[in-house]
Amino acid sequence: MQRFLSIFGEQKCKIIGMIHVDALPGTPRYAGNWQQSIEKAKHEAELYKKHKVDAVIIENMHDIPYVQDRLLGPEIVSCMTRLSQAVRSIMPRQTPCGVQVVACGNKQALAIAKACQLQFIRAESFVFGHVADEGYTDACAGDLLRYRKHIDAQNVLIFTDIKKKHSSHAITADVSLLETAQAAEFFLTDGIIVTGAATGKAASDKDVQELSGKLKVPLMIGSGVTKENISQYYPDAQAVIIGSHFKHDGNWEQDIDELALQSFMHSICALREAT
């Protein structure tokens, strides 16, 4: 918990805004708009800065269909590095910035974070294997933390999804959510992320309560947080990651809706003042 607090501070329930960058060069939906993609990422960073979001994370979510990490080309890493640097240059120095490279590009994300002086990454498949949209994914904690040490990126926090969305966990059905979180904790995660079944779907109260107060690392909500349900997560979560709710029509594929962002931040400020 101390590693988290040293970067994010003591304030309750940090709001981490998601920047879903455009489809990158080489992926099926790339539209030949590389310079515009940079400007769009910078624009979204300016909006998050304006409305004083606590942190931001950059993700290549438009690169569907995803491939496993061994198939991620150098163009993905180089483009995500360029976009991350653009966002980092806009956000205030004290605002933590992170990156996620899907699918399971955890080493790639660490390298980007190191190069761009980002503070954290979001990692998939940290402990236990599972079957995701893109195929079977094995656990990576041992290899990933050794790589972090190897590139001298110990100051980059690794937040890890458990029983992650868009995946089948039948092969670990006999391992509870709490046992999975405790395994990730034992394997030195810097934070636990729980999600709903898919992007934009809320994490269940049952899942949150199963973990609340039982971990030594931060508990984070990674999908489905809205203005309407933030109060139910607020007492238990140290941070929430929000993408879809900040977009027009609550659709992750759309642009950021500044009014939705502004309204949510007013709500969280009121909630903080009331507690």
Automatic annotation (TrEMBL):
NCBIfam families: thylakoid_BtpA. Belongs to the BtpA family. This is Uncharacterized protein. The lineage of its organism: Eukaryota, Metazoa, Ecdysozoa, Arthropoda, Hexapoda. The gene is Dvir\GJ12874.
